[in-house]
Structures are given as structure tokens and as C-alpha cells.
Amino acid sequence: MSAVDGSTVHSRNICDVEDVPMDVIIRPLVLEVNNEKVQSLMDTLEDPSNASSVPPIDVLWIIGSEGGNYFYSFGGCHRYTAHKRLGRKSIPAKLVKSTIDDLRVYLGSSTPDLK
Question: Which GO terms describe its biological process (predicted)?
Fold first, then answer.
């Protein structure tokens, strides 16, 4: 698989796609999107015959020190925004089991203490 088919280096070996509730996904970086691209994705998602052509996003799944579940997403900004603007309650995602050290790669010293 390659990025062309929606896979990334993080999720290329993950086959399962989960419907992850939008309200549990943490997006710590400011989204900058191209509104035309978002609208195109929204049009595709609203067409039942084409909706499955939109690849899932990658979500880092981190279990905190006291067992809490945390779901971080850094990519898929346009897909995430399209789902959000459509009022979708969930988004197809590949859950990438990760660690706090993985998260630290993205957030550096801003990494929260996850419980």
C-alpha cells in the first residue's frame, strides 16, 4: 500500500477501519485547509456511491498512565474538516497504537501528562 491508496507509513499494516467519535479526537495543531478541497470531499461524502472512496484518517491511540484512552490526529485535516462541517458524529479512522513517546515527537515539551 502507499499514500496513493490512503495508507501512510503509520497505518500501512493496519487493515481495520473504526468509526471514531469526532468528539474524542484531539487535534492539538491549528487546522489550515483549502475550502475548495473540503467542499469537494463533502460532495463525495454525501454521495453514497462515492463516500467509501475517501480514505480513513490516522488516529494515534495512546493509553495513559492510569488507563485513560486518548485519540490524537495530526493529518487528514481536509477529511476531518469535511466530516465536521457535515455534522458527522464519527469519522472512519485507522487506530495506530502509540505511546507517549510517539506523541512527544509531535508535541515536544508541550506533551501533556496523560492519565
Answer: cellular response to oxidative stress
